[in-house]
Amino acid sequence: MHTLTDQQSTVGQDTFPIKGTDHIEFYVGNAKQAAHYYQTAFGFELVAYRGPETGVRDRASYVVQQDKIRLVLTSALGPDHEVAHHVHKHGDGVKVLALWVDNAEEAYYTALERGAESAFPVEKMEDEHGWIKTAAIKTYGETIHTFVERHAYHGPFMPGFVAKKSELEIVPAGLRYVDHCVGNVELGAMNKWVQFYQDVMGFKLLVTFDDKDISTEYTALMSKVVSNGNGYIKFPINEPAKGRKKSQIEEYLDFYRSAGVQHIAVATDDIIYTVNYLRKHGVDFLYVPDTYYETVSQRVGEIKEDLKELQRLNILIDRDEEGYLLQIFTKPVQDRPTVFYEIIQRAGARSFGKGNFQALFESIEREQALRGTL
Ligand code: FE2
What pTM did the predictor assign? Predict the structure, then answer.
């Protein structure tokens, strides 16, 4: 993760330094099988484990990693357990968006001083590989941000976890790092959470989308994107907007039963390789009609990639003042229509694919109609 630290040192005036995304923890019904899915479908490698065999009696956690992306998949081992309750209510979903910091204690107390609510206090954990400090604050829904200080730790993940390898022969899918994580919040709550990130972590408002930008005949959404000082953390926050029928954000909120993480965008340097890989390994993507590609060249101009190949794989293209980007969205990765992934390759563009919202919305509505929730 050297590039993150190097660039960090050039950033001044950051009132809440964050070095990057440390990990994302999902609470799931069956962590063992989820770990298998992320290995075989997404090309993650199993790196660490904690559970009954390591002396933890109430839960099992699998850590899978691909380049800088680290996912933790956790299941409860009994019914009367925080993780079981979370899964009962929300289905499989993101519990923790963990942020990598130099000083967890300072981050935590600064956040509390600025109005954040504690999720758990500072904890120092140690084993033969060194020590780690963590502490956490609450954000939207039941999601939390854990601050992770790990400069004194050299083990596979955290104290309490043991290194674990799988017999599976995994070839990486080319996924490199978390580009952004999107939250869906209740109608009227978007500005409160944007303010929260501004007040508590000194995030800046990058961009605003309203229902004029993102709407179809039926549904609409409002979105604001906040970003931390060095730009490594980007959190778009969506809320539903009034449309003629149920919006995709409302559908999410109905099924997740609260605000929560809607999608995680992961970056690749070669989206054609990555999407070929993911499709071959069983990942389902949203469908984009061929008509999208009839006009896309006029909109985005010259690009390096073969348009035919992008069309065959259903990859979307957008351009801003700084360059272009390629992106594609998976279908939800669990039965509830909640969390999904975005695969993104940036060629200069730092935006989020506004030019694709229309096509995307129409595609999501086709899926909603199939589910009978439009
Ligand atoms: Fe996104």
Answer: 0.93
